[in-house]
Every structure is written in structure tokens, then in C-alpha cells.
Amino acid sequence: MTVILNQSLTGISIGAVLLLIALGLTLTFGQMGVINMAHGEFIMAGAYTTYVLQKSISSAGVSLLVALPVAFLVAGAMGALLEWLLIRRLYTRPLDTLLVTWGVSLMLQQLARDIFGAPNVQTAAPDILTGNIALGGGITFANNRLFILGLALLSVLALTLILKLTPLGRRIRAVVQNRDLAEVSGIATGQVDRITFFIGSGLAGVAGVALTLVGPIGPTTGTNYIVDAFLVVVVGGIGQLKGSVITAFALGILQSVLEYSTTVSVAKVIVLVAIVAFLQWRPQGLYTLRTRSLA
């Protein structure tokens, strides 16, 4: 029982990482219909932002706190620039967005190699995040994983409040439900798209900061997580924040428990088969978007 509980806690921490990454995709893919393969490189940008800040700030704790808003702004600006230069011309052509952003992701990876080098680099975690918390009965939870969990839940809360309570959130939801009606109602849909892309990409940068606490980072840091994050969004339901939260933790726990009894590769195969079977039964995902559209 202790082993299962420990594996479940590990799965919760994996789910927190997936959730942080999937939050941005919930906006850019789920709500805007854009298949952004460069999302992983925005994660990489957030991770390298932490690395650069640690070079100029001696305190690991201070640099981590500074890196969170800075990484959000850096990755968000990259996303807004990508949307303005390319994505806005391809909103009705999702497959084209996949090909274009895949090319952009390769370019950004090569740019990272040119600037930081091909080998992975390591960042230092604050002392307070290097230990474990004993929960009793041999059950422990790593401090860095607990921080990532708190960061993910805080990001979910902030995004929920923005979408539910702010004028921007109401405009975003209006564009998602019926873009044409939103346009004739006076909503500047292009501006809303750009802001939404900024927020989604910025959340990817925050996820990159979190990944520096898990292990070394490199040019392909984001690529290692992007497929799992897309699965979280699809299984949870396109554009459904609640579904992404549930799916991220469910997949994290399932994968962690299976890895203990099998191997990492076998566990991933079983999880993928389970996802395919679930989507065959419920292709719309856990939750569906309710709209006023008759189409």
C-alpha cells in the first residue's frame, strides 16, 4: 500500500507538469483551433530564461521567483509574434498551422543550440526545494514536486478567474462560442486572438520554469512533453479547462503506477492504448463545448 501511495504521489507530480504545459494548449489549440507544434519551444524558452537569470542572480530562490513572470513575458511575446506573423493568416486551415509551427519549432531548436549549445544544462534549485516532506508511514513527497503542484493549481485558478470574471475572459468565450456573432457585436476578434495566444504561450514559459526543477534542460526540452500535453487537451475535451485538469492528473497517476509494475516504455504503450480506447467510446473527450451555433 505504501508503494502504491508513493507512486500515486509521483503520478500527481507528473500530472502537475502535464497540466502546466496543457494549460497553454487549452487556449491555443482547444479554444482557437490552432495546432501549435512550437508550443514546446515556448516551454524551452521559459526554461532557458531561468538558466540565464541564474547566471546574473546569485540566489537560486530569488532567480526562480524572478524567472516566473519574466518567462511568462518572454514566451508570451514569442507567441504573440508568431500569431501576428503567421498564425492569423491560417485560422481556418488547422493542418497548415501544424506544418508551419513545426517548421518554426525546428528553427527555434536550432537557434537554442547556436546560443546555448547542444548539450543539456543544469539549473540550481533553491535549498528549500531540494528535500522531501514525510507524510508518515514511509510516504514522502519531494519539495520541488510540491512546488510544481502548487504552481499548476495557482495557474488554473488564475486562468479560471480571468475567463469567468474579466471583460477579456468574456470576450474570449464569446469568440470561442461564435466568432462571426462576436465580430458583428463589435468585438475585435483579431486582438482577442493575439491576447489569447500571448496568455497561452506565456503559460508554456511558466511550465518551462517548472521543468528546470525536475532535471536538466536542452533544446528539445519541450518536445519531450508536447505530445502528452496534446493528449491531455484532446482527452479532456477541446477547450475544456476542467477536463484538462482531470485528465492530466489521471494520466500522470496511471503512468506512474504502471511504470512501477512494468517498464517506462510498456507503461506509455498501455496509456496510449487506453486513450485510444477511450476516444473510440467518447470521441469528444470528457467534456464538450456548448455553443449557440446551429452548425
From TrEMBL:
GO MF annotations, alphabetized: transmembrane transporter activity
Residue ranges annotated as transmembrane are 12-37, 57-82, 146-163, 195-217, 229-253, 260-281
Topology in the membrane? Multi-pass membrane protein
Which Gene Ontology biological process is one annotated for this entry?
amino acid transport
Instruction: Write out the annotated subcellular location.
Output: Cell membrane
Question: InterPro entries, alphabetically?
Answer: ABC_transp_permease (IPR001851), ABC_UrtB_bac (IPR017779), BCAA_transport_permease (IPR052157)
* Pfam families referenced in this protein's UniProt entry, alphabetically: BPD_transp_2 (PF02653)
Q: Which domain of life is it from?
A: Bacteria
Q: Name one GO cellular component term.
A: plasma membrane
The record's keywords, sorted A to Z, are: Amino-acid transport, Cell membrane, Membrane, Transmembrane, Transmembrane helix, Transport
Q: Which NCBIfam families match?
A: urea_trans_UrtB
Family affiliation: Belongs to the binding-protein-dependent transport system permease family. LivHM subfamily.
Name of the protein described by the UniProt record: Urea ABC transporter permease subunit UrtB
| Organism expressing this protein natively | Streptomyces adustus
Report the gene name.
Answer: urtB
